[in-house]
Specification:
The protein has about 190 residues and is mostly helical. Helix content is about 60%, strand content about 0%. The chain contains 7 helices and no strands. It is elongated. About 5% of the residues have low confidence.
Length: about 190
């Protein structure tokens, strides 16, 4: 039987006596997930901001964010605006009655085809959150440019005659999808990244 002090020391430890994965395992995991290690030199000659040996860091140091992460975050923001815009639309007088009568303005009568079309139009930006991170750079770049332009035009076409809240969310969407196109268009070449 262990004494209380020995028991406390043994709690949470693996048979090897350490808590958690060894540091080399974490570095390997970081390298595989993000593509960098803790002492990795960047192509431009700079040092990794995650390098704990740096003494010149300040609290306001920015970490360079890869374009894939920016694009993914932009698509997530676009989705939030879509969802909130459609949700708040339900509070407009007469909208719930239209839904109960099977009308889906401006698309007309609610049919399987109309619901399939709207589902696809919402699934593409949702999937682009993942695809922006997972696809090879060139394919991701072109898909982001194409869908960014399509969704910018899509939102612009739905804005005329809309209420102020929808105009606000639509304007934010246009800025976000415009940024998607911009970041994808100006994606750094492989050697410059």
């Amino acid at each position: 039987m262990l004494r209380s002090g020995e028991r406390k020391r043994s709690l949470g430890r693996s048979p090897g006596g350490s808590c958690g994965p060894p540091p080399a395992t974490f570095s390997l995991l970081l390298k595989n997930l993000v593509g960098i290690g803790p002492h990795h030199n960047y192509p431009d000659g700079g040092r990794n901001p995650l390098d704990s040996t740096r003494n010149d860091r300040t609290a306001s140091d920015d970490v360079k964010v890869h374009v894939k992460l920016k694009l993914s975050a932009l698509w997530a923001s676009v989705m939030f605006c879509y969802v909130y815009g459609d949700y708040f639309l339900l509070y407009q007088p007469g909208k719930l009655q239209d839904i109960l009568y099977g009308n889906m303005a401006p698309l007309g009568q609610t049919t399987q085809g109309v619901l399939l079309f709207t589902s696809v139009s919402m699934a593409i930006p949702a999937v682009m959150i993942f695809l922006s991170l997972a696809l090879k750079a060139n394919l991701s770049r072109w898909l982001n440019i194409i869908f960014g332009v399509i969704y910018t035009l899509f939102v612009l076409l739905t804005m005329p005659g809309a209420w102020a809240f929808y105009l606000l969310l639509g304007s934010v969407d246009v800025v976000l999808t415009g940024l998607i196109v911009w970041y994808a268009w100006t994606w750094p070449k492989q050697g410059a990244a």
